[in-house]
């Protein structure tokens, strides 16, 4: 699974044979420059979903339900999820949370909207959790997470994202479920993996790299090189070269200049 | 609703879209985020219309590049690009529509000649107010002069766009170079003058013969920004995706130069990540978290009970 937020990034998941293309609410930060995923509105998410859907035909399309669209209860969540499927052209939705969202998950799956769960570290709750820390390192938390996984499976989720939990815990949860787990910072024993595409491609050259991210390309550097190169070439007069422009036959140009000259004269005469 | 780049860059932002401003980021520790400290570059002064005039007066080439997202805007700022332009080319490069006219008014408020002067002005106001933009660009010649006057009279800077105007490609039967015969050339030159009189602060010249562009540039007081118009314009613009080679296949227009191969690099990364996952090579132990052994034991005991 890999995130995408627009047409080009979606095309890459298509060409790269990715199984699930996730329109993650990480786009709030990586695409829109917001300071938190909680700033993303449903309309903004739908805009990006549509663009992704145009780019990725084969991967399964799943999108994060933005913060606030499902916390108020099943009815609100249903309205939002229907919009994501109908207007956003998505095939499934992802919700963060465990026991507290089970009713909502049941309602959605009951109506045929595939739901992907997400437990462990919940980015939309970073404010209440005081940051983005690894979860499930003590027994109570670990048990709570394991229970949530089972409950989500029973409520009908078709898979569950495990984020930032110890690998042994993730391994245990994975083997205890029938449905697949998709890990991020949860070790290699999950059924699959997910990364934010911008992180995997190193779109951001500076900034902190989380331990679970691996750089599979240096797009940020390459892109900056391109923009720098363009600016330099324009300022030095190197771009565009003659062959990067269009010619005009001399006779036509002369005719044009004559006509221009005559117009100039007549307007001067008119004003004098 | 297109939520786009907030001018957190120091470039002058010209746009044809509506949206909400973004807020600068803080560090998210579990993933990579952009440079943490101050986003505004202290070493760079904000580009204003006055600055553009200075560049023009000193014959320093003006650089303009399209942007459509936060990362593409950051790159433009890093490279000291003068004008950041949210072009409706984003319809194709970012959104995957098959041409720029597919953008709905909801997705992008672009000015249509079909709109009356009042509606156009209202649209421009929205772009500036809601979209945090500093100026708008309008395609067209004589026929948009009234609209240009109204918008500039309201205090909103307007950039003109003549020559090949992508929004009209159907009626022009494709993306062909314009102004190759004397009549068309005259018409374009006249439009340029009329737009200048109506108050534009700059004019984009697209896909016209270099000689014509040079002639027009010399005849105006305001700067011209060329694309496929040769190097005698006051500045240049390219669609960032074209300049960076985001699209591997497809025909490359003659006026585009690839300054990077981002598409290749990015696809390489996606393919490598898929392979690494499928082979079980990613994540490695050091890319994951451990758990204290006694806690793990207690957990396992609990589960067995």
UniProtKB/TrEMBL annotation, chain A:
Assigned keywords, A-Z: Methyltransferase, Pantothenate biosynthesis, Transferase
Any Gene Ontology biological process: pantothenate biosynthetic process
Pathway(s) annotated for this protein in UniProt: Cofactor biosynthesis; (R)-pantothenate biosynthesis; (R)-pantoate from 3-methyl-2-oxobutanoate: step 1/2
Catalytic activity: (6R)-5,10-methylene-5,6,7,8-tetrahydrofolate + 3-methyl-2-oxobutanoate + H2O = 2-dehydropantoate + (6S)-5,6,7,8-tetrahydrofolate
Coiled coil region boundaries: none
NCBIfam families per the UniProt record, alphabetical: panB, PRK00311.1
Similarity comment: family membership: Belongs to the PanB family.
Task performed by this protein: Catalyzes the reversible reaction in which hydroxymethyl group from 5,10-methylenetetrahydrofolate is transferred onto alpha-ketoisovalerate to form ketopantoate.
Protein's name according to its UniProt entry: 3-methyl-2-oxobutanoate hydroxymethyltransferase
Record organism: Dacryopinax primogenitus (strain DJM 731) (Brown rot fungus)
Automatic annotation (TrEMBL), chain B:
Metabolic or biological pathway, per its Swiss-Prot or TrEMBL entry: Cofactor biosynthesis; (R)-pantothenate biosynthesis; (R)-pantoate from 3-methyl-2-oxobutanoate: step 1/2
GO MF assignments: 3-methyl-2-oxobutanoate hydroxymethyltransferase activity; magnesium ion binding; methyltransferase activity
CDD domains assigned to the protein according to its UniProt record, in alphabetical order: KPHMT-like
GO biological process: methylation; pantothenate biosynthetic process
Keyword Nucleotide-binding on entry: no
Protein keywords: Methyltransferase, Transferase
Catalytic reactions on record: (6R)-5,10-methylene-5,6,7,8-tetrahydrofolate + 3-methyl-2-oxobutanoate + H2O = 2-dehydropantoate + (6S)-5,6,7,8-tetrahydrofolate
Residue ranges, annotated region (Disordered): 282-305
Residue spans of biased composition, Basic and acidic residues class: 295-305
Enzyme class, spelled out: transferase
Cited Gene3D superfamilies: Phosphoenolpyruvate-binding domains
Entry's EC annotation: 2.1.2.11
GO cellular component: mitochondrion
Family classification: Belongs to the PanB family.
Name under which the protein is recorded: 3-methyl-2-oxobutanoate hydroxymethyltransferase
């Amino acid at each position: 699974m890999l995130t995408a937020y627009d047409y080009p990034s979606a095309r890459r998941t298509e060409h790269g044979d990715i199984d699930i293309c996730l329109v993650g609410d990480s786009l709030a930060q990586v695409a829109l420059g917001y300071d938190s995923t909680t700033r993303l509105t449903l309309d903004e998410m739908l805009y990006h979903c549509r663009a992704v859907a145009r780019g990725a035909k084969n991967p399964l399309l799943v999108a994060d339900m933005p913060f606030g669209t499902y916390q108020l209860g099943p009815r609100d969540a249903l309205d939002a999820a229907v919009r994501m499927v109908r207007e956003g052209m998505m095939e499934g939705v992802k919700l963060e949370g465990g026991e507290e969202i089970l009713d909502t998950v049941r309602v959605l799956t009951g109506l045929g909207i595939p739901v992907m769960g997400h437990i462990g570290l919940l980015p939309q709750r970073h404010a209440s959790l005081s940051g983005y820390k690894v979860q499930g390192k003590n027994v109570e938390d670990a048990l709570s997470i394991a229970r949530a996984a089972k409950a989500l499976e029973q409520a009908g989720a078709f898979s569950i994202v495990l984020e930032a939990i110890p690998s042994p815990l993730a391994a245990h949860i994975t083997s205890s479920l029938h449905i697949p787990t998709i890990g991020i910072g949860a070790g290699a024993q999950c059924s699959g993996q997910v990364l934010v595409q911008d992180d995997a491609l190193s779109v951001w050259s500076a900034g902190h790299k989380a331990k679970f991210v691996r750089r599979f390309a240096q797009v940020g550097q390459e892109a900056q090189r391109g923009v720098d190169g363009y600016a330099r070439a324009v300022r030095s007069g190197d771009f565009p070269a003659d062959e990067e422009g269009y010619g005009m036959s001399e006779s036509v140009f002369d005719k044009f200049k004559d006509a221009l000259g005559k117009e100039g004269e007549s307007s001067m005469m008119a004003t004098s | 609703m297109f939520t786009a780049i907030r001018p957190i860059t120091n470039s002058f932002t010209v746009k044809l879209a509506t949206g909400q401003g973004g807020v600068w980021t803080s560090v998210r520790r579990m993933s990579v985020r952009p440079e943490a400290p101050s986003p505004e570059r202290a070493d760079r002064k904000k580009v204003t219309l006055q600055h553009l005039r200075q560049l023009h007066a000193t014959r320093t080439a003006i650089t303009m590049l399209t942007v459509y997202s936060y990362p593409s805007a950051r790159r433009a700022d890093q490279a000291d690009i003068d004008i950041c332009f949210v072009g409706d080319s984003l319809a194709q490069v970012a959104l995957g529509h098959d041409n720029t006219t597919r953008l709905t008014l909801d997705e992008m408020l672009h000015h249509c000649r079909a709109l009356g002067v009042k509606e156009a002005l209202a649209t421009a106001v929205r772009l500036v107010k809601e979209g945090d933009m500093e100026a708008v660009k309008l395609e067209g010649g004589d026929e948009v002069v009234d609209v240009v006057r109204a918008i500039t009279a309201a205090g909103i800077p307007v950039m003109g766009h003549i020559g090949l105007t992508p929004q009209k490609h159907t009626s022009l039967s494709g993306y062909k170079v314009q102004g190759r015969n004397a009549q068309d050339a005259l018409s374009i030159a006249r439009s340029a003058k009329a737009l200048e009189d109506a108050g534009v602060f700059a004019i984009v010249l697209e896909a016209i013969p270099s000689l014509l562009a040079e002639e027009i540039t010399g005849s105006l007081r305001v700067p011209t920004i060329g694309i496929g118009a040769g190097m005698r314009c006051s500045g240049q613009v390219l669609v960032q995706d074209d300049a960076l080679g985001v699209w591997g296949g497809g025909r490359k227009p003659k006026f585009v130069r690839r300054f990077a191969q981002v598409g290749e690099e990015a696809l390489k990364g996606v393919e490598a990540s898929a392979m690494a996952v499928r082979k079980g090579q990613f994540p490695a132990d050091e890319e994951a978290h451990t758990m204290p052994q006694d806690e793990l034991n207690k957990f396992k005991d609990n589960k067995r009970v």
